[in-house]
Amino acid sequence: MAAARAAVADGSRVAPLDAGPVEYAEAGSGPALLSIHGAGGGFDQGLAIAAQLVGEGVRVVAPSRFGYLRTPVPAAGDPRAQVDAQADAHAALLDHLGIDRAIVLGLSAGARSAVAFAVRHPQRVAALILAVPALHAPESPVAVDPTGGSRLAFAVVKAGGDFFWWALRGLAPSLVVRFVGVPPDVLAAADGAERARIAATIAAVAPLSARAEGIRIDSAYVPHDMPVERIAAPTLVITARDDHFNTLPAASRAAAGIRGARLMVFESGGHLLVGRTGEARAATRGFLAAHGLLEEDRTGDASGSSGRT
């Protein structure tokens, strides 16, 4: 527990914005990349997903969303309105840092405020990347795996109990893997480096108590139609067919609604894209290079990806 708290005690700052304090961290140099974490995350997850899905050559700005770590929850309100408020807070953070435009990366539940940001502040978005997006799909909604074990894990997470999360990870690791949207057999077939990455991702949810309020906000949100047709930025949407959170329908719907968007679907990998981050990163970098936002990689490209576009 102490190690988990120490890991998030350093490496971030708090911006005193008009809407309230927002924690953030920065890394790298180059075009600005606003990296918006998913449920159970924070600035630390934002830095990690930027490294995994984009890599070098960008200036990463990774905020902690409302209720996560040192970013407090604003006045209580409708969860949908909070998504818009979160998008406006993203814009205010960029203002604070003197950044006019940014590439925007939204992971899972973070895709909601990424989309809202692209709709409400279109001139600020150089490109939009939505990874396993927890958006609206009325015919087949995004949902936690319905098994009893996943419901138990979800109850532990919503309660924000550090000890119970630690115990659950130790006593029922396959349950936790399924809870984070990854089929256990996919993880079992992965190489050692990928298994270590997933273990680190799960461990990084601690301290759960410092993220619990944000998790409750994310879980209270009911996805609804957002005016994605108003998004003008080049857009790449990435998901996996076997994501246990069922983000494929939402990803497909978003890509169909955003003019010119590209959809990349992996046949396997689950919610954490197990074994697919190299391909996803190559595709992301190729996408950004095609729009003049990164220099084209000379060591690899996305042409060998097994994703469907």
TrEMBL record:
Show the InterPro entries listed in the entry. AB_hydrolase, AB_hydrolase_1, AB_hydrolase_fold
Segments forming domain AB hydrolase-1: 31-273
User: Which top-rank group of organisms is this from?
Assistant: Bacteria
Q: Which UniProt keywords apply?
A: Hydrolase
Which ranges form a coiled coil? none
Recall the GO molecular function terms of this protein's record: hydrolase activity
Endpoints of the signal sequence: none
Q: Name one Pfam family in it.
A: Abhydrolase_1
What protein name applies here? Alpha/beta fold hydrolase
Question: Which species does this protein come from?
Answer: Xanthobacter tagetidis
